[in-house]
Amino acid sequence: MAEKKIENVVIIGSGPAGFTAGIYTSRANFDPVLFTGHEIGGQISLTYEVENYPGFPEPISGTELVERFQKQAERFGTRLVYELVTEVDFRRWPFVIVSETGQEYRAKAVIVATGATPRKLQVPGEAEYTGRGVSYCATCDGFFFTGKRVVVVGGGDSAMEEGLFLTRFAKEVFIIHRRDELRASKILQKRAFSNEKIQFIWNTVVEEILGDGTKVTGVRLRNVKTGERQDFPTDGVFIFIGHDPNSDLFRGQLAMDERGYVIVDRYQRASVPGVFAAGEIADHRYRQVSTSVGQGAAAAMEAERFLAEVEDKGYKEAARELLGEPLPSYIIVEPLEE
User: Fold this and answer.
1) CB-CB contact of 143 with 167 (8 Å)
2) Average pLDDT over residues 176-180
3) Rounded to the nearest 5°, which phi and psi values hold at 271?
4) Catalytic residue from among 31, 89, 137, 312
5) CA 208 to CA 124: how far, in whole Å?
6) CA–CA distance from 200 to each of 121, 176, 192, 229, 243 (Å)?
7) Which of the two residues, 107 and 1, has the higher pLDDT score?
8) Taking Cα atoms as reference points, which of 203, 218, 276 lies closest to residue 24?
9) Residue 147 DSSP label
10) How many CB atoms within 10 Å of residue 292?
11) pLDDT band at residue 2 using 50, 70 and 90 as cut-offs
């Protein structure tokens, strides 16, 4: 029986970080394989317009930006597999990656770029008006609400930070929180309470997002203490109730923080030598297209360096040199047979 081909690089994820990693590793002649998953582009593909990405003085839709990323990656030779990855084994090297159809791939290096998913309210109208008044990123979309009224849903640091950011554009910002006190840090609370553009609607939840079929026109609110309902007019709904990293696939395989984000060092190296992570799977702070692109480029360049070290010295010696510590004893190194 013929041995399976061993890939140089497998990239898991098709957002800005994943496609950038594809561009860099394919230009380095590593012939990478990139698993797109079922939603090519990740969160950026849901953004109506992107206007803060360098090189695009005019707004570009998230969908078109993703298409350009994809075309550029494919132009240099990135091979796309339009499937989910359902299983990985980083305990043996070359690493094992299994797709949803049961196809097994072996790889000398893996770049994880599966991103994170904003938590949804799961109310009527949310999906329908995403990108048409419903947003999960004030930095991305705040400008489009200049001079308008918006609501922010949430009570943590992200909600306060994004709400404060929105005051640069919106004429009114209403923060809706299900409790009567915030979870945000005291300094952010102080800034929000002292901002004359921000008002608070306490003990209240959003039950439905209203619209005219084209854009958001309001939200249906319910007071959790009195049960009273009201339709509240607004031009935009910004939802900040947290993000969940798409990291379940890697649990028990890679070191993660308490929230499930993959832990990387300054070189985008994960806890297993030869595995790198980039974008929102490892970044809960910035969550921008430009930062994900930078991290994808860095992960790819470090993967190139890792592969060069492997070719020169072998996996174990390269891993020890790169990490500066002994290789974890559970990793099984198999002979390379092309």
Assistant:
1) no
2) 95
3) -75, -15
4) 137
5) 5
6) 19, 6, 9, 16, 23
7) 107
8) 276
9) T
10) 29
11) very low
Which one of 31, 89, 140, 157 is the catalytic residue? 140
The β-bridge partners of 106 are 6, 96
Q: What is the mean pLDDT of residues 48-68?
A: 85
Summarised one tens digit per residue, pLDDT across range 65-103 is 999 999 999 999 999 999 999 999 999 899 999 999 999
Question: Catalytic residue at 235?
Answer: no
Residue 213, both tokens: 């079929």
Encoding tokens for residue 329? 């004893």
Catalytic site includes residue 31: no
Please tell me which residue in 141, 157, 244, 248 is annotated as part of the active site: 141
| pLDDT of 338 over the 50 cut | no
Burial class (CB in 10 A: 0-12, 13-18, 19+), 205: middle
Which of 273, 332, 281, 335 is closest to 307 using CA atoms? 273
**Could you confirm whether 283 is annotated as catalytic?**
no
Interstrand relation of 104-112 and 149-153 (parallel, antiparallel or unpaired): unpaired
How many Cα atoms occupy the beta-carbon half-sphere of 12 within 13 Å? Answer: 28
What tokens were used for 124?
A: 């009527």
Look at residues 274, 295, 304 and name the one whose alpha carbon lies nearest to residue 110: 274
8 A C-beta contact, residue 151 and residue 209: no
More confident: 44 or 266 = 266
The most confident of 153-167, 187-201, 315-329, by mean pLDDT: 187-201
- Contact call for residues 21 and 111 (beta carbons, < 8 A): yes
**Average of pLDDT values for 247-264?**
93
Quote the CA–CA distance of 160 and 191 in Å, as a whole number. Answer: 9
Q: Taking a C-beta distance cutoff of 8 angstroms, is the pair 72, 296 a contact?
A: no
